[in-house]
Design goal:
The protein has one domain (2-128). 82% of the residues lie in helices and 0% in strands. It has helices at 2-54, 65-96, 108-128.
């Protein structure tokens, strides 16, 4: 009987370890995604800046849509990274509890998808004007 209890405890701890490692992998994926978004936005902003420096008298874009576009990607990457870190912290807190009960985390991927869709619509409208 005592041996069965040890096996159950060991399997529970192994399940917690796997869950922790999965949470870490998810955070690393969000870090990579956020860095890509920030880098892309920074690149768009710098290209706009250098084009303006080459032709200082010519207005390239009166409403600065490239800056808005680049800034939106940087903001999305930054806030996505912050949200992923908070979600990771909450997940680790839940895993450590003895009375762990699975609860659906807030939909970070859906939020990023909606914001990317809005950025895409803005970019499409800017191209078609």
């Amino acid at each position: 009987m005592n041996e069965d209890h040890r096996d159950t405890s060991r399997s529970t701890e192994l399940a917690r370890e796997r869950s922790r490692e999965a949470a870490d992998r998810t955070l690393m994926a969000w870090i990579r995604t956020s860095l890509a978004l920030i880098g892309f936005g920074f690149g768009v902003g710098k290209v706009y800046y250098y084009l303006g420096a080459v032709n200082p008298g010519q207005a390239l874009d009166p409403i600065h849509s490239a800056r808005v576009f680049g800034g939106a990607f940087v903001a999305l990457g930054t806030f996505g990274l912050l949200a992923a870190a908070l979600q990771h912290w909450q997940t680790l807190k839940r895993i450590q509890r003895k009375d762990f009960v699975y609860s659906v985390p807030w939909p970070l991927t859906e939020l990023v998808t909606v914001v990317l869709f809005c950025i895409g619509v803005y970019a499409l409208m800017d191209i078609l004007r």
